[in-house]
């Protein structure tokens, strides 16, 4: 069984994707940037906003940040990554996932970080 989770983000209907897909005991969360009416300009604020959206998608899927097994970070400027480290350590705590960081252009030039995760459902 495959279940799709939508967050209502503006790019989901424009591009044709959903926030997360649950399939075979695994949760695939799409690349997630800051969302909302008041998106912070700074990378740390955007990182926090993206993590909030990811937590919500994971919760709706039936899992949480402790069950994230893989994360990929995309940033237009790799120098912006280090200020996010404290938030990421807090988000994943004692359960750090495998991780990759990629410097890349993002869809919206205002975005400073995009985060994609893969998680498993609890036993």
Question: Mind explaining what this structure looks like?
Answer:
This protein has one domain: RutC-like (60s Ribosomal Protein L30, Chain: A), CATH 3.30.1330.40. The protein has a six-stranded mixed β-sheet, with helices on one face. The mean pLDDT is 95. It is built from three helices and six strands, in the order βαββαβαββ. Strand 4, helix 3 and strand 5 form a beta-alpha-beta unit. With 123 residues, the protein is α+β, with helices and mostly antiparallel strands.
Features:
alpha+beta, 6 strands, 60s Ribosomal Protein L30, Chain: A, six-stranded mixed beta sheet, 123 residues
User: Which CATH architecture?
Assistant: 2-Layer Sandwich
How does the helix and strand content classify structurally?
alpha+beta
The largest sheet is: 6 strands, mixed
Query: Which residues sit in consecutive blocks of at least 5 with pLDDT less than 50?
Result: none
Output the helix-strand order: EHEEHEHEE
What integer is the average pLDDT?
95
Q: Under the CATH scheme, which class?
A: Alpha Beta
């Amino acid at each position: 069984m495959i279940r799709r989770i939508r967050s209502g983000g503006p790019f989901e209907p424009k591009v044709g994707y959903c926030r997360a897909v649950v399939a075979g005991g695994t949760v695939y969360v799409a690349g997630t940037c800051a969302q909302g009416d008041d998106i912070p300009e700074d990378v740390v604020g955007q990182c926090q906003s993206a993590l909030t959206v990811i937590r919500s998608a994971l919760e709706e899927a039936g899992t949480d940040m402790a069950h994230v097994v893989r994360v990929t970070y995309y940033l237009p400027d790799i120098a912006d990554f280090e200020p996010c480290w404290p938030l990421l350590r807090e988000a994943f705590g004692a359960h750090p996932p495998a991780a990759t960081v990629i410097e890349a252009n993002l869809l919206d030039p205002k975005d400073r970080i995009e985060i994609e995760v893969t998680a498993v459902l609890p036993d």
